[in-house]
């Protein structure tokens, strides 16, 4: 007689289903991006990122209260200055918008982990991520400014700096600058694998950081390549990166898996503004259910191998974790 092997109905009810889940999402592995703009008493909705606002530094603590209550423990800050110049000097001004925000945040919520995005593009009049030389980004001239920016964030109280500029050698330049000033404990989460992507569209509207000419293809990666991702990740690790980030996430889950299996450091995936907007807009059009979609996407990213998920849906996910919809 043939033996019939049955799957023991492990997937039939919720309790059993939860017991045998391979992938779990916990609030402590989520990071919420927040936009900080210069000024006072400003909370300004971002049309391109429904549900998100730009906060002036003085208003940040009010929002962080919500973040803390939801159980989200880490945030990623982006700065939007009032004035921009060729050198992006607002990025490394000790009273710059991010530096102010970090100080206020740490004063009121010392337990929230602050990660800062380190880049010049929001601060340069031309919108490129570095210094220009004949309309081309000059990698080596940019490095000291990136290092100075990172140091000023850490001096203000940031726990982790996340360089997103993609200049070669920036992780080393930052590590040296931090160590020389005694900030040996502060970690670097490098945007090691950052593709040149159309999914950054809403972010550029939110942060006003579109390049005024050309594109970022000379310093962001071509999405036809995946071996190059491993090379970039390896270089950043050798230069001293503590956490490697892959960005965007959804169209790059194979890259998350590859980077995860090759390197034994924490891997972060950044589900970017365009990925969030896709779901939000489709939900608002009545085409898909955002709760289901955001949960499915988050679990998919962790299943691919990410340890950390940076997502604009972090607050919603926290609520759905509380409600037992994912976990
Ligand atoms: C700055 C930066 C960008 C994003 C994160 N850091 C914009 C860009 O590279 O154009 C995009 C994040 C998102 O779309 O959510 N260099």
Task: Draw up the topology in text.
Elements: H1 14-19, E1 30-37, E2 43-45, E3 53-55, H2 60-70, E4 74-80, H3 97-108, E5 113-118, E6 132-133, E7 136-137, H4 139-156, E8 160-163, H5 170-180, E9 187-194, H6 201-207, H7 227-239, E10 243-247, H8 253-262, E11 267-271, H9 273-284, H10 290-304, E12 308-311, H11 314-322
Parallel strand pairs: 1-3, 1-4, 1-12, 4-5, 5-8, 8-9, 9-10, 10-11, 11-12
Antiparallel strand pairs: 2-3, 6-7
Helix pairs in contact: 3-4, 4-5
Residues 117, 119, 121, 129, 164, 200, 203-204, 209, 272-273 line the site of ligand PBG.
Question: How would you characterize the overall build of this protein?
Answer:
It is a single chain. With 327 residues, the chain is an alpha/beta fold. The chain has a single domain, classed as TIM Barrel, CATH 3.20.20.70. The protein is 38% helix and 17% strand. The chain has 11 helices and 12 strands. An 8-stranded parallel beta barrel has the order 1-4-5-8-9-10-11-12, surrounded by 7 helices. It has a two-stranded antiparallel sheet with strand order 6-7. Strand 2 (43-45) and strand 3 form a beta hairpin. Helix 3 (97-108) packs parallel to helix 4 (139-156). It is globular, with a radius of gyration of 20 Å. The structure holds ligand PBG.
Bound molecules: ligand PBG
Strand order of the largest sheet: 1-4-5-8-9-10-11-12
- CATH homologous superfamily name? Aldolase class I
Which outline best applies? globular
The helix/strand class is alpha/beta
Q: Give the rounded overall mean pLDDT.
A: 93
Cα end-to-end separation: 41 Å
Which class in CATH terms? Alpha Beta
CATH topology, by name, is TIM Barrel
User: Would you identify the regions where 5 or more consecutive residues have pLDDT less than 50?
Assistant: none
Q: How large, in whole angstroms, is the Cα Rg?
A: 20 Å
Order of helices and strands: HEEEHEHEEEHEHEHHEHEHHEH
- CATH architecture classification: Alpha-Beta Barrel
* Total strand segments: 12
Measured by DSSP, the beta-strand proportion falls in: 15-25%
Task: Give the count of helical stretches.
Answer: 11
Q: Share of helix among residues?
A: 25-40%
Largest sheet descriptor: 8 strands, parallel, barrel
List the domain count as a whole number.
Answer: 1
């Amino acid at each position: 007689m043939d033996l019939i092997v049955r799957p023991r109905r492990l997937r039939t009810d919720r309790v059993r289903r939860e017991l045998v889940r391979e992938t779990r999402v916990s609030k402590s592995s989520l990071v919420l991006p927040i936009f900080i703009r210069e000024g006072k008493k400003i909370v300004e909705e971002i049309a391109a990122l429904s549900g998100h606002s730009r906060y002036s530094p003085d208003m940040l603590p009010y929002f962080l209260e919500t973040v803390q209550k939801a159980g989200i423990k880490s945030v990623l800050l982006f700065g939007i200055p009032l004035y921009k110049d060729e050198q992006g000097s607002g990025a490394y001004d000790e009273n710059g918008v991010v530096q102010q925000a970090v100080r206020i945040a740490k004063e009121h919520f010392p337990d929230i982990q602050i990660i800062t995005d380190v880049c010049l593009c929001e601060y340069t009049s031309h919108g490129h991520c570095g210094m220009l030389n004949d309309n081309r980004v000059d990698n080596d001239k940019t490095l000291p400014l990136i290092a100075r920016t990172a140091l000023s964030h850490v001096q203000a109280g940031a726990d982790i700096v996340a360089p997103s500029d993609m200049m070669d050698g920036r992780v080393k330049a930052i590590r040296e600058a931090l160590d020389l000033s005694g900030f040996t404990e502060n970690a670097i989460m490098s945007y090691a694998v950052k593709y040149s992507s159309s999914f950054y569209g809403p972010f550029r509207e939110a942060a006003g950081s579109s390049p005024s000419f050309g594109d970022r293809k000379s310093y962001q990666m071509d999405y036809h390549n995946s071996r190059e991702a491993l090379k970039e990740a390896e270089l950043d690790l050798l230069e001293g990166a503590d956490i490697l980030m892959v960005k965007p996430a959804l169209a790059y889950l194979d890259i998350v898996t590859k980077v995860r299996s090759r390197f034994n450091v924490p891997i972060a995936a950044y589900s970017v503004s365009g990925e969030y907007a896709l779901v939000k807009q489709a939900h608002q059009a009545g085409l898909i259910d955002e709760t289901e979609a955001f949960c499915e996407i988050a679990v998919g990213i962790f299943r691919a191998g990410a340890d950390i998920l940076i997502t604009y849906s972090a607050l919603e996910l926290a609520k759905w974790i509380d409600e037992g919809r994912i976990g």
